[in-house]
Specification:
By secondary structure, the protein is α+β, with helices and mostly antiparallel strands. The chain has a domain of 163 residues: Cathepsin D, subunit A, domain 1, CATH 2.40.70. The chain has eight helices and 25 strands. Strand 20 and strand 21 form a beta hairpin. The radius of gyration is 21 Å and the shape is globular. It starts with a helix and ends in a 5-residue tail after the last strand.
């Protein structure tokens, strides 16, 4: 009798725990546009649209603070800050774990009209996130990953000698032509395509599109040894000096997809500037044009990422 009760109790406990975990996984209101993700924060004055950028920092635009009647403070040098976490907490969303968030002049931002700011590394840092590009869902508090899971790989963050994280910029290796290359997982990587680039991408839009990046040194190497790979010499309408190349295949976590477009970036961007925030220097970024091939889960606490393919129809 006791044995039967214990098994019954265990079964009920497991079902209850599973149900609770599934209810705990929380989809956000988000828009997916051209491979970029914009999370919506409901406020008393309406929804604030924020780019969800795994490589960026958190900030709000000056016009947003004014238009939505948000309270802000300025320090002695005139730099303006706002309590973004208070808005996130009130909406029941993850916070940045920062008391104050920077307010940026609209002219200093590359965000398109209708986007009010950015949620960056610190917003993602303490959760398990699912980036479901197929169903256009951004979900936090997903089930934790395990290193033995299919299509799952270790990701790395910059840490000090005590193992404390100094940056929440996720770095992962992907293989191109048998060469393992370190990349930043970058949901905010984007460019404004020229007409030629837009035609090559098949997007036919002047709005920002998700893009993956590679340093000039590797870009030129690919271009030299693979003259058959398609190249667009002038790809970025905003920057002008950016080219684009189509890589046939990329393998990550044992999964191969392609083709994928990469835009060129100066070596210094990654080998010096971004290297301050990664455990080893990255050679580029994997943006939404690549990530959208997957049902991607990033487990920040356990430093794992799962590159699962979408369910077949």
């Amino acid at each position: 009798m006791t044995l039967k009760f214990n098994f019954s109790f265990l079964f009920v406990l497991m079902v209850t725990a599973s149900t609770f975990a599934q209810q705990w996984a929380s989809p956000l209101k988000a828009n997916f546009q051209n491979g970029l993700i914009y999370a919506q924060i409901p406020t008393a004055s309406g929804s604030i649209n924020m780019m969800a950028n795994t490589s960026g920092g958190a900030y709000l635009l000056e016009s947003t603070v004014d238009d939505y009647g948000l309270q802000s403070v300025k320090n002695n040098d005139g730099t303006e800050f706002v309590k973004l976490d208070a808005l996130l907490k009130e909406a029941g969303l993850p916070t940045t774990q920062r008391e104050m968030t920077l307010v940026v002049n609209d002219k200093e931002s590359s965000l398109q009209p209708g986007i009010h700011g950015e949620l960056g590394q610190s917003w993602f840092a303490n959760h398990v996130w699912k980036f479901d590009y197929e169903n256009q869902e951004l979900v936090y508090n997903e089930f934790s990953l395990a290193s033995g899971d299919a299509s799952t790989v270790q990701i790395a963050f910059k840490e000090n000698d005590r193992g404390e994280r100094m940056s929440n910029l996720p770095l992962v290796f992907a293989s191109i032509e048998g060469v393992d290359i370190p990349f930043i997982i970058d949901t905010g990587a984007k460019m404004e395509p020229t007409a030629e680039a837009s035609a090559a991408l098949g997007t036919y839009t002047e709005e920002p599109v998700a893009m993956s990046f590679i340093i000039d040194f590797i870009f030129e190497h690919w271009k030299t040894i693979h003259p058959e790979w398609q190249v667009v010499e002038t790809a970025d309408a905003e920057m002008g000096n950016v080219s684009m190349i189509q890589v046939p295949e990329i393998t990550i976590a044992g999964v191969t997809v392609g083709p994928v477009w990469f835009a060129s970036r100066p070596d210094i961007n990654y080998l010096e500037y971004m290297a301050r925030f990664t455990n080893i220097p990255a050679m580029g970024s994997l943006g939404g044009n690549f990530l959208s091939n997957f049902n991607l889960t990033i487990d920040y606490p356990n430093k794992l990422a799962k590159f699962g393919l979408p369910n077949p129809e």
